[in-house]
Amino acid sequence: MKLSHLYAGMLALSCATPALAASLTVPTDVELLMVDGQKVPSGLLKSTPHVNLPNETSQILFRVEKIVRSGSDQTLFTSAPIVASFDASADQKLTIELPKLNTDSDGKRFNQSLDFRLVDQNGKTVPYKSDVLAVDGLMSSRNIQEALATYNHSSSAAAVANLAPAMTATLAVPVAAGAATAANTAVTQQTVTLQGENVPEQMLQYWFQQADAKTQQRFMNWAKDHARP
Predict the structure, then answer these.
(1) 201 three-state secondary structure
(2) How distant, in Å, are the alpha carbons of 79, 108, 111, 217 from that of 64?
(3) SS3 189
């Protein structure tokens, strides 16, 4: 092989190597909904727990879901959708740390304070800006994307202006007339009370009902193949 060909091949390989990017890992109680304007792929139960952050300024949308105590019962706490923006360097490995969330009162406090921590691999706190994202109607993917696109066109605390045009183009759908006032719309949270000892079964039923028809069918096929004798 000629040296010139070998050099050309090495150059092409080096150009194809992806640039370093920061990364984010979330705990099991956190569901990532969007990263930098893009929907995070998810399965029946949880979203991807680890994502790369290619942009210097990143924006994430997530919510917290955790079983908490409510008197003598157990309740599935679902937080408001939280939007957060922050700067991260290429070598940082970030993690979201949640405060104590053991009771429904803890959940209510969290919805008011949004007091989570964003830390890097050295335990150093990374500053961020956060806000509650108001979503009109159901928490569908389309409504979430429209709400976040509208939010990024505003001057709100965690808005990232350079994501707004790209997100609007990607959506390719008209923004509802009332979307501009979405920030003033109260977010309706769903509370599910889990009673008795068979909490896992109730959780499966809850998440099955949240999934679309195709995901439900995939889960039924999986359950059939993995059913215990």
Answers:
(1) helix
(2) 5, 12, 10, 26
(3) coil
The DSSP code for 42 is B
Q: Which phi and psi angles does 131 have, rounded to 5°?
A: -165, 160
What Cα–Cα distance (Å) separates residue 8 from each residue in 11, 12, 17, 18, 218? Answer: 5, 6, 15, 18, 46
Condensed to tens digits (0 to 9), the pLDDT of residues 95-123 reads 999 999 999 999 999 999 999 999 999 99
pLDDT tens digits, one per residue of 81-90: 999 999 999 8
29 backbone dihedrals φ, ψ, rounded to 5°: -85, 0
| For helices 164-171 and 141-152, angle between their N-to-C axes, nearest 10 degrees | 150
Look at the block and give the residue holding tokens 């990374």.
126
Q: How far is CA 7 from CA 1, 11, 17, 18, 58, in A?
A: 10, 6, 16, 19, 36
**Three-class SS of 86-115:** EECCCCCEEEEECCCCCEHHHHHHHHHHCC
**Cα–Cα distance for residue pair 187/172, rounded to 1 Å:** 25
DSSP state of 163: G
Judge whether 40 and 33 are in contact, CB under 8 Å. Answer: yes
